[in-house]
Amino acid sequence: MAVNLFRLGDGVHADPATLKTSGVASQYISQGEHQHWWEFLTGIVPNSFFDPFVEGNILQVIFLAVTFGIAIKMVGKTGEPITVAVGRLTEVVFKVLSFIMKAAPLGAFGAMSYAIGKFGLSTLTSLGSLIVLFYVTSALFVVVVLGGVLALYVRLNIFQLFRYFKEEFWLILGTSTAEPALPGLMHKLQFMGVGVPGAGQLLR
Questions:
Q1: Which candidate in 25, 99, 139, 146 could, as Cys together with 21 as Cys, close a disulfide (CB 3.0–4.6 Å)?
Q2: pLDDT digits (tens, 9 = 90+) for 55-76
């Protein structure tokens, strides 16, 4: 609604038909033009357990994860050692990610510096209005819609939640992705009682 109202892209005058693609991009475009919906659904099922991890197919990885999780849940006590092992492995992986993601803002800064140095400051300023519109619209949705739902049904103040997650918000803002903040968010949510059986109410 916001984009259709303000129409920030009207001044770009870009014709997608004139764009030339090559390499992997053209391969994906050609595959998408000739792929049927049922081929997309059957393509979610991998040929083997390791294929999705080797090829980097995210949908197949998610399919395996969900199927594996359901199977562990259904076998009951037999799957408890696997659940414990996966939980411990997850802790280690998240700790490694926390080390790497401390340098993520520096990587984003380096990418922006390269783009400005090679193509000029206009590469960033041309997208400034779109970014501002995105953040303003997102903030209004989170505060008004999500904040209203939390206040009515969960009795949770959205601004208290913002203060609690402020470090993660700054990390997301600096890297333009939520992945670096995921380990910290999960630890803080667990500390609040989310997902812990018998836990008390959330923030007051």
A1: 25
A2: 778 888 889 989 988 998 899 8
CB proximity list for 1: less than 8 A, separation 6 or greater: none
For residues 73, 78, 80, 82, the Cα torsion angle rounded to the nearest 10 degrees is -90
Number of Cβ within a 10 Å radius of residue 64: 19
Sign of CA dihedral 135, 164, 180, 65: negative
**Reported confidence tier of residue 95, pLDDT bands at 50, 70, 90:** confident
DSSP H helices, 35-180, are 37-42, 51-55, 58-75, 80-101, 104-119, 122-125, 128-140, 147-149, 158-164, 166-175
> Which pTM value belongs to this model?
0.47
